[in-house]
């Protein structure tokens, strides 16, 4: 049976960037482009019969409520991206809890459905902010997609597993919370880039040629028998978006490859089968119930 991969969208606006402080303010009068870009993504997903997981900022949901309802009505999963696109490790636990709870309540009120997934802005659950996992479990989340398995200057935990795993490995033995990491290409030595070579989303997806993205996806699906977790932002298919004033390094990270990003997206969707994160987890739970296995987080999800 062909493995189903996962496509995720971080629903935020063109100015939501965390390279340095003061780049954006959620209450400013910046012109929003998110609805037009999300509409285009929904058209593409419908064309290729793909259901995706949308990690939505609470501030975006509050300003564009009809858009969120539309996403949900088309059968996609709605998950939380927090409220204000704030880095987790720059918040106190109290601030983080308030930010995430506010987002969760807004999304659940709009859709009438329980929100069980969370993704930190800029993958900002790192070794210095793993305390956030306790709060996510306390708030009723089933999974987090917040820990990048490759370390760089902005995010990542180098020892994090490359595939779905229980968050108990980060220091708490009785965690039920799962982590769903973005996919990376396994390297011969784990001393290089820690958890592998990123390729499945954001700047990595835009930077690498399609043939490499396809090759890495095939290797993970066929050799490692695992789904690939892709991710993009609505702005990454928008060649006419406004531009932030960034340092050269950050400018290239933020904008390089946008002209061809939609073409790559369409090729990927045409090439592979996809499902939402919630669908994957529910299907695995059904399998575990049928086989009589005991649900203990990481031990029973290692085969995904």
State the main characteristics.
5-stranded parallel beta sheet; 4-stranded mixed beta sheet; alpha/beta; 304 residues; single chain; 11 helices
General description of the model:
With 304 residues, the protein is of the alpha/beta class. 38% of the residues lie in helices and 12% in strands. The strands form three sheets. Strands 1, 2, 3, 10 and 11 form a five-stranded parallel beta sheet that branches. Strands 4-5-7-6 form a four-stranded mixed beta sheet. β1, α1 and β2 form a beta-alpha-beta unit. α4 runs parallel beside α5. The radius of gyration is 18 Å and the shape is globular. Residues 294-300 have low confidence and may be disordered.
Short recap of the structure:
The protein has 304 residues and is of the alpha/beta class. The chain has eleven helices and eleven strands. Helix 4 runs parallel beside helix 5.
Task: Describe the SSE topology.
Elements: E1 4-11, H1 34-47, E2 53-56, H2 58-63, H3 65-73, E3 77-80, H4 93-111, E4 117-118, H5 131-138, E5 143-144, E6 165-166, E7 178-179, E8 184-185, E9 197-198, H6 202-207, H7 210-223, E10 229-232, H8 248-255, H9 258-271, E11 273-275, H10 277-291, H11 298-301
Parallel strand pairs: 1-2, 1-10, 1-11, 2-3, 4-5, 5-7
Antiparallel strand pairs: 6-7, 8-9
Helix pairs in contact: 4-5
